[in-house]
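Table S7 (text form). Paired inputs.
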Amino acid sequence: MKTLKLNNKNIGLVAIMVKLKEISEIKTGRNYDEEEGSEIKKVNPESITQKGSIDLSKTKPVSGADLKKEDICQKNDLIISIVGPKNKVGLVEDDNLVPSQYCVNLHFNNEEEAKDVHEYLLSKEGQEKLSKNKTGEALPRISISDLKEIDVPL
């Protein structure tokens, strides 16, 4: 949010709404072969807490053999679960994490925007927007194209 000024006087906070696709690169996760002892960890929906952190004890080590550098999340990226009834959004704070096929990675060039979007998507309004875009009864899912179109405030 930005403070709006008129004649050098603050008149309040103003949120500029932008689509996720305008401020982030959205990359789909995939199914990786598990490999004990690997430093690279796969994040599943159950690895993401409702409070928005990533529980490393619930990640799985995966083989790095077929990974590309761009597959690995960077600090301050977001990992969002796209399958299941719960809308989970985790902020990446550790190295060597990759999203599973049930998640996507949102990469931001601006760390502050990433944290603002993370906070917003965890809010009641953000959770409602994610839920509204899910389809399917047995296993609700949000499409990448719908996720890209979600408006978020900056």
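Next pair, protein 2 of 2.
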Amino acid sequence: MKVLTLGVAASLLAALACGGDGGNSGTGPERVLVATVTVTPALDTVVPGQTLQLSASVRSSRGDAIEGRGITWTSTSNAIATVSSSGLVTGVGEGAVTIVASVDGVPGSSAITARFPFPNGAGSYSISGTFNTDPSTFSGTVTLVQASRLAGALTGSATGTLLSSDGSRNTVTGLTSAAIDEDGDVSFILGTPAGTSEWSFAGRLMGDSITGTHILRINASLFSGSWQGTRTGPLAEFGKAPRATR
């Protein structure tokens, strides 16, 4: 009986030495806390209809990388851009949006601008202008069609009527070499099919208004001045002429 008691005591001492649970505490390694989430790129642009891949770097307070944690991706405006569970951003509309990556409640973000590379220059414009050294004036209509805002080529039609100082009227029709660049600078040439007269226009589109300069060539004579245009018709669907207003 005395030997049995000593054996039980020895077993108890061994268990206490191992933590009191037979050698298995069950607590496991301590979970490392997330300190920062960095999204790359932090600033970028996406074209509506196209995609952009983001990535997130997760680190501890010591700067060590933390792997294997779940990342939750969200967009502040799905009307501008959406984001998938893997961080793939898809442009939807135009504007500014913030894409957020969260890990264990710690956020990181990327500022995304969704926009087309070229402004929308399509529409019907009522134009008018004057000349620098002549009292003559002019007015007319320009219709611009833009096939895609991924490029700056424009097509369309135009008619300009010149009212000379002596009361006579001269009309120039036709539209060639029309284009718009990334900054909204519009240019086109208005001239007759025979090419006896040519009118070159250049201006900056701001909202629904264009202001700029023009040069009218009638045979060998050149006349320069300023002009302005106002978009009077609704914006066209790409590749189609503007809808008629009621």
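Residues 2-17 form the longest helix (16 residues).
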